[in-house]
Amino acid sequence: MKLYLNTDLAQRYADAGLLEQERLRAKDIYRELTAAGEASPDWGVTGWLHCEEAAMQRAQIAEKAKEIRENADVFVLVGVGGSNQAARAMIEALDTTGPQILYAGNTLSAWELARTLQKLEGKSVYINVIAKNFETLEPGSHFRVLRRWMSERYTPEEMARRVVLTGTYGSRLEEIAKENGYLFLSFPERIGGRYSAFSPVSLLALAVAGLDVEAFVAGGSAMEAELAAEQGGIAAEYAALRSALGQKDYAIEMLAAFEPRLFWAQSWWKQLFGESEGKDHKGLFPATMTNSEDLHSMGQYMQEGRRILIETFLMVDDPGAELRVQPDKAFGDRFDYLDGMDFANINRAAEKATIQAHDAGGVPCIQLRLPRLDEETYGRMYYFFMMACAVSGKLLGVDPFDQNGVEEYKRSMFSALGKPKN
Ligand SMILES: O=P(O)(O)OC[C@H]1O[C@H](O)[C@H](O)[C@@H](O)[C@@H]1O
Predict the structure, then answer these.
(1) Under which EC number(s) is this enzyme classified (predicted)?
(2) How much is the pTM?
(3) Which residues pair with 286 in a beta bridge?
(4) From 92, 224, 259, 275, active-site residue
């Protein structure tokens, strides 16, 4: 089912002529990105454009996931940023089955890692280590610890079944897989971490969690086809509007959701837009709100703080549960006006009221409506945002596919820790 983008309210805050111009530019950029093929200067970083191609090794992944689901109590997903966020966002939000899934390789906190190891004690453990360039400190150091932990409990033959590595061909990670007989899955060379949702990077974890990988990829492909049929469609529209608003005083985009289980999808979105656009002192700063909680804190700033924010509402039509407020007249709590109402409607009313209030308060409000939260919708949503982000970055005049700023922090950390230069 389709996603709907409504930009009516926010458009009023943009300069009409500029918005029209950005729409034309966005469509041109979309065409260039998708049509150029091997001749494109972006060829090396746009392997994500076709979901079906990105979603390689599916049979192998399904087979391994079956084995893991039959044998594992715990599956540890070791990765950071683009190497764990897309899968995590779905696993944390959807109804999963199978082993418990834990996350490692995304912190250097001793307490967190020690607690993860405690949780593994006495359990049947499988791990998937994911790293595009196997230099990132967090997954690398955690793999070291987990490998030792497992080798003290399993024979090398057992280890070979229990460890899956996902990296690029020719990398040190592939050599380690070969040397130890671990299954090796492809982190496609032409796909960067934050654009890797449809690749094996996330597919194994999704399959282990019992999620429908085929429906997920089909969702991505459906959005790919829809955008192609409409020369960039809603992705180009969202990018154009962000660009037109960004050229005024707006500096922050708040992605607000009224379903707390979208938290990790919002986190995925922050990496996507933050790393893609935050360059050359440009780009909207991506921030997120989880409502109602944040309405009672950040809501104040949204309503009356500095007018530098635009707000995108990630709305869900079908919350996936029905729960009504039962009348209880005798209790006298003065909430009788809610009698018989469904929480879906109450939440929707809160969302509408928030949009109205923030609009009146001078915040350009964009609405993206998702029909429900399932694999297909996540597929559509990821593809929509990835395409919108690539187009948006190019409208801004930055390279949406690199992240030199992150490398900068890594360099100073490596030197502080005494890492030898390669
Ligand atoms: O998969 P890796 O190479 O370990 O990268 C994991 C993450 O860390 C890096 O610092 C990059 O900034 C991210 O874009 C990337 O997703």
Answers:
(1) 5.3.1.9
(2) 0.97
(3) 253
(4) 275
